[in-house]
Write a structure and sequence with these properties.
Layout: E1 4-8, H1 12-23, E2 29-33, E3 42-44, E4 56-59, H2 66-76, E5 81-85, E6 101-105, H3 112-120, E7 126-136, H4 160-163, H5 166-174, E8 179-186, E9 198-205, E10 208-215, E11 217-229, E12 232-237, E13 242-247, E14 251-255, H6 262-273, E15 281-282, H7 283-298
Parallel strand pairs: 1-2, 1-4, 2-3, 4-5, 5-6, 7-10
Antiparallel strand pairs: 6-15, 7-11, 8-9, 9-10, 11-12, 12-13, 13-14
């Protein structure tokens, strides 16, 4: 089967997807929807200018545009596979999708450490979970001024709750549904943004304690998962690709030397195009994550 692809938007993540689809999957019939002048790919300026139906669409535009773009595609086309960069929308929205297949780009699920955790914790009693993702927004895209990025703009769907929703997806996918007990959120730094730059969430998953710490004003980059269970403890470092496990039976440290983060994007595309869907985030799961995000955004401590 010959694949024709469309990448919507040509920002940093759109460029990444276009490059991977061309170089790793050999897709020659690839169009980019952008107003930028580029020579590497065929371009259209607007989605409405799409004459030929592609078999695969990647939506890499600012989050605030996802709903309108998906609604247009669902109305005009059918039997297309669509990958939407996370998060699904800027807030929970109702969109019935019947004609096309939509997936959401929570590619961290394809990290080898996350795959390992998914298998290891199955059926085990977990007492406490600590999730941390701290980074410094100006370092995200060194070649661009962070103030002009979608992350810095509330109207474009920025803020740590949406931007770092990988962690919310992983918690739900690995452990189950969250019962919120306490939330602290808001803008605490002097970054030139109008979005929240911190979220601290405390809650439960069944009887298991949960804490989530997200910010993008820390100059010390950190993305970790700590799991304490009955007779075992795990420390997972998703930046240094290292996992440390101590249990009643054994203790070891595992380093994933050959892993590169782009592998998660490659494996995600491969899974969707080959119909191997056991890891990919589907539309309904992502919609429920959006419900959780809305609940977090509206939360007021009593």
């Amino acid at each position: 089967m010959t694949i024709s692809a469309l990448v919507v938007s040509y920002g940093s993540i759109g460029q990444k997807h276009a490059k991977i689809l061309k170089t790793k999957f050999g897709i020659k019939d690839l169009t980019v929807c952008t107003k930028k002048r580029i020579s590497k790919f065929k371009t259209i300026k607007k989605l409405h200018g799409l004459k030929k139906k592609p078999s695969y669409i990647v939506i890499a535009s600012p989050t605030s545009k996802h709903f309108k773009q998906l609604k247009f595609i669902e109305k005009k086309f059918k039997k297309i596979k669509i990958l939407v960069e996370k998060p699904l929308f800027d807030k929970y929205r109702k969109l019935n999708v019947r004609k096309n297949k939509i997936f959401v780009g929570y590619n961290l699920r394809f990290h080898p450490i996350i795959k390992y955790l998914k298998k290891y914790i199955k059926g085990k009693k977990i007492l406490d979970i600590k999730i941390t993702c701290n980074s410094y927004l100006p370092d995200w895209r060194p070649d661009a001024f962070y103030k002009k990025s979608s992350s810095a703009s509330k109207s474009l769907g920025g803020g740590v709750i949406l931007d770092l929703s990988h962690e919310l997806d992983l918690v739900r996918w690995l452990f189950g549904e969250i019962t919120i007990k306490f939330i602290q959120k808001g803008k605490f730094s002097n970054l030139l943004i109008n979005t929240e730059d911190l979220l601290k969430l405390y809650g439960k998953i069944g009887k298991t304690n949960l804490s989530i710490d997200l910010n993008y004003f820390s100059r010390i980059k950190k993305r970790t998962i700590v799991i304490d269970g009955k007779n075992f403890s795990i420390f997972a470092d998703l930046i240094n690709n290292k996992l440390e496990l101590k249990s009643k039976e054994s203790s070891f440290t595992k380093k994933f030397y050959n892993f590169k983060f782009d592998d998660t994007y490659i494996q995600q595309h491969k899974a969707i195009l080959s119909k191997n869907m056991n890891i990919v985030c589907d539309y309904n799961f992502a919609k429920n994550t959006m419900k959780l995000i809305d609940k977090i955004k509206k939360w007021k401590n009593k």
